[in-house]
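Course assignment 3, question 2. Fill in each field.
Student: A.L.
Task: Predict the tertiary structure for the chain below.
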Amino acid sequence: MLRWKTVLYCQAYCKIDGVPTDILINGVSSQNRAVEGDIVVIKVDPLELWTKMKGSNWSSNNSAPIEDCNLVQEVNGVAANSYKGKGKVDADCEYADCRSGILIGQGLYDETQVTKPAGYNHVNGHHQSSSDSMHMGLFPEKNEGINSVDRLAVMTSQFPSKRPTGRVVAIVEKSLRRDAVVGFLNVKQWFSYRELNRKDAKRSSIIFDHEYVTLTPNDPRFPKMIVFVRDLPDCIKRRLEDGDVTIEMELLAAQIEDWSAESPYPQACVSHSFGWGGELEPQISAILYQNAIQCADFPPQVLSCLPTIPWEIPPEEYQTRKDLRDLCVFTIDPSTASDLDDALSVEKLSKDSFRVGVHITDVSYFVLPNTALDIEARIRSTSVYLLQKKIEMLPSLLSEKLGSLNPGVDRLAFSVFWELNSTGDVLDHWIGRTVIRSCCKLSYKHAQDIIQGTIDVEKFNASEGGYPQLHGQFEWADVIRSVKYLHEISKTLKEKRFNDGALQLESSKLVYVFDEDGVPYDSRPSEWMDSNFLVEEFMLLANMTAAEVISRAFPDSALLRRHPEPNMRKLKEFEAFCRKHGLAVDASSSGQFHQSLEKIREKLKDDSVLFDILISYASKPMQLATYFCSGELKDNLNSWAHYGLAVPIYTHFTSPLRRYPDIVVHRTLAAVIEAEELYMKQRGLLEGNKGEEVFRRCFTGIYFDKEAAASPRGKEALSNAALKHGIPSPELLADVASYCNKRKLASRYAEEACEKLYMWVLLKKKEILLSDARVLGLGPKFMSVYIQKLAIERRIYYDEVEGLAVEWLESTSTLVLNLSGHKRLFKRGGLGNYMALGNAAWVVNPYDLSLEEGSIDEHDATCMANGGVVLPDLEPISKSWVDPGTFPLTVHLLSTIPVALYAIGGDDGPLEIGVRLYMSSYLK
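Answer field:
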């Protein structure tokens, strides 16, 4: 199957498993009405029609590509300023392949002129020609598709400087994104059209059924859409009839209903309004809608699956589980966390050995297979965190009370213990179901204070320092000692992990500061502390151990997580970029890659901005980690590996309150534990009772007894336990894994969109933010810049700007910008006006350089409004001073330049973060 992914409406890429290079589908005609997320069949063009690969000249002596001048695609998607208001669409894109009787902009759609040509497929609405014999697709009845993929993979390897191109010939599976379009209506032209025809009442009644307005989607990867007035919700239709122009300021939900073969525009139906586009809550609602995130309250049938409060652990659980209530166990989480699903413990066994425990809440005890609660959790698949809003996978009764490892109360858990020596080697491990009682809830800040030694045990007073209450028989000396032990062990484990080949790419993130109404008013870079890494190391080790246990016992039905090797073409491009700037990178393995980056970090210790840029670039070749069923890849064990962690097998086990795959893994672990106990009891190997620990464990111990698992008794025990605990068949588990991957990706998109939203709100509140920026890509038409203050990448366009002279020196890849008095009214070729200077640069007079006096004059504001950017009376209120640049401005790759950032859109179009040069001139 082929998965379709678009970058812009007129340019798309099709990813094919097994082919290292995505296929370019260029232009609306070649796209053939496919949209983001569609699974399609394509026909690949002959080799001579393939295009030059972007960045293919990096290895040459040129310091930067020219045509594709920006070295990488932008970190946050579409370039800033590429969307100039909802009424402006690139002419070549909008009118390509327009053969129908559509009159966009005139308010009337003539359906009688749309015809369905020969070969029209009424099932999927697409052409299928009998002559198309080289289609790239994997239909069950066509084995030649596999050979085509292999041949294409060989060809792309033989011609690495060429990008394959092709066209869509059929849609196999339509994307759910077609049913979740968000955008703004364009009604002004419809009002004008109605006014012209108001006098002719007879004609108006005849054409009313064909009247339409257009909808501009927020996502630029989707085309403009036609919405018939007759199909609008009554409340919106009434407002149109009343002449309410403010309907253009509302964010609307729509679905693509039809897309005829002769039309470049799909027909959509508007279902409801989210509210004003410039407000926070409507935008958040739209983000959830676009990503199909279930945020409704849990229905009664789901809540009825949970016990009522107060609830106590049944006596039989104490009898069958290992009782750890006398062990010093505690949680370390963010200070605001309410769903505590992991806890830690440590015991010193000798001078050089420790027993470390990770205790994960036993959510599978409450979420039984195929109940209403299980089905709801599976549908949601993951909790979604939107900075100020959490959308839970499980009801709060479970995630914050019954299943949360709150201090001072008995809780059911899965516990993993390791015996570790001084070099971090695991000498033995134990895994089983337990009962624990956490003695306190530490925040990362509390744990960090302990690690840094700012707490004096002798003089420590918890009540004075804002520390949490301590429960049970333990004293603060026990907790402090445990945290210090765990810190030292985690450092050893981390060092060992990276020595074994692990890779870590730390990207910059922002932390927002909110006012009492939940509106951001400031931000700062986030910072990981030693206490964060402490918890991370033991969670990674627990996940690895769980993966080993379930995959050995159930080799065909274990839910695992894999991370494929990076895209080699992009990785080589990154290596070339580094070489060009005198930085050596060895990316032959994840371990060598990590060591190279650490050396670069040391070399660039005085240039943190450049190192942040390199880490951002280094992340681009990386592929997504995904869940999979072990039975899917049982013939290719090498593909199970996790590239980033450099381990052969991995899964998710430590967050069952917020990830559904972890619940599946818990059930599988429960089945392994029960099968082991049943088998050992039958063999007479189980000594003692009531969960008493035994020395030898055949299925869950550090050594796996293959003979026991393969014996008739072993098979019977494993089969019965799997049936009891609801372990899915390999086929069903593969579907669960695939669905969880989609929901995790949707969650990620929603979280990223929310972060961009809060950044937009912050900039709108500040009105303008001055910052230094680093030039990443440079060419004759635009430059790409990285703004560390917001950890984003954006473009600045300067080609064909009124009043700006551009000189591009190709031999040295140098750009020179200067003010020009030459007046140019029209672009070359006569298509449209030149862009106003205010869209490329904010030019201030040196007399007005104080923050209090800086503003944009009325002319610049008007010019920006004409370009779709509204910035009236801007006043920079950034706390940090940034000196403006001066003309002429000479720019090289990696130059530092001053820029001005601002918010675009909201009430009149999609949200964007705009950026312009920040310059001063007496000629202003």
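Instructor remarks: Confidence is low (pLDDT under 50) at residues 56-145, 689-695, 851-878. The two ends are 57 Å apart (CA to CA).
Grade: pending
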